[in-house]
Amino acid sequence: QKEVEQNSGPLSVPEGAIASLNCTYSDRGSQSFFWYRQYSGKSPELIMSIYSNGDKEDGRFTAQLNKASQYVSLLIRDSQPSDSATYLCAVRGNYGQNFVFGPGTRLSVLP
Amino acid sequence: EPEVTQTPSHQVTQMGQEVILRCVPISNHLYFYWYRQILGQKVEFLVSFYNNEISEKSEIFDDQFSVERPDGSNFTLKIRSTKLEDSAMYFCASKTGTATAEAFFGQGTRLTVV
């Protein structure tokens, strides 16, 4: 059973702060890792993908991957109230094309 | 920008009735998915479809569910005899054939079984 876990929320940060979201996965063979953002009542929207160990930056977002520790994180710099949403970690294994989602972490950015 | 489109946005049906949820994936994509999200819960995988056949399915996807790609553009999910616990948001997604590609999600169909 492939499991994806995320740090429980809700996570509240003040506007302008750094938000740190964490994710661990059980399938050591996982190869592709994704962060999606989901606003209430809406569909998941891709923020970033990462495949190699290390950091990947895209604007205010940085994804970090450590395959040895089976750990993925997302940092949001200069958090804005519009970043308030649930952040979903999704993992895809080496075989098959199914995406396994974590339960999500709800982020609130306080003005 | 290409997008996955789903219809209807909201469907109300009586318990025991059949429903068909429709999706038009992005045109050059090769993998198609159905996920569901019960209110307040996580996004759960139902089924993936590739090369005109089911490639993977979850335990949720039992004999009451079926998928079809009838005409090369639409991708449908049929629930034969709906139950109250089928009430959820159903998301269709698609991706290219590239192994590392991400999945793009439609806006979802909210299914309410009464």
Describe the structure in your own words:
The complex is a heterodimer of chains A (111) and B (114). Chain A is mainly β and 111 residues long. Chain A contains no helices and 11 strands. Chain A has strands spanning 4-6, 11-14, 19-25, 32-38, 45-50, 54-58, 61-66, 71-76, 85-92, 99-101, 105-110. Chain A is globular. Chain A starts with a strand and ends with a strand. The model of chain A has no long low-confidence stretch (mean pLDDT 93). In chain B, strands 2, 4, 5, 6, 9, 10 and 11 form a 7-stranded mixed sheet that branches. Chain B is an all-beta fold and 114 residues long. In chain B, a hairpin with a 6-residue loop joins β4 and β5. Chain B has strands at 5-7, 10-13, 19-24, 31-37, 44-50, 53-57, 65-68, 75-79, 88-95, 104-105, 109-113. The chains are: A mainly beta (111), B mainly beta (114). Chains A and B meet through β4, β5 and β10 of A and β4, β5, β9 and β10 of B.
Provide a quick synopsis of the model.
The complex is a heterodimer of chains A (111) and B (114). With 111 residues, chain A is an all-beta fold. Chain A has strands at 4-6, 11-14, 19-25, 32-38, 45-50, 54-58, 61-66, 71-76, 85-92, 99-101, 105-110.
State the major sheet of chain A.
6 strands, mixed
**Quaternary organisation:** heterodimer
Give me the secondary-structure category of chain A.
Answer: mainly beta
- H/E order of the elements of chain B? EEEEEEEEEEE
- The structural class of chain B is mainly beta
Q: Proportion of β residues of chain B?
A: over 45%
Proportion of helical residues of chain B: under 10%
Average pLDDT of chain B, to the nearest integer?
94
Radius of gyration of chain A: 13 Å
**Which ranges of chain B are low-confidence, i.e. pLDDT below 50, for 5 or more consecutive residues?**
none
Distance between the termini of chain A: 40 Å
Helical stretch count of chain B? 0
User: Please, how many helices of chain A?
Assistant: 0
Gap between N and C termini of chain B, in Å?
Answer: 36 Å
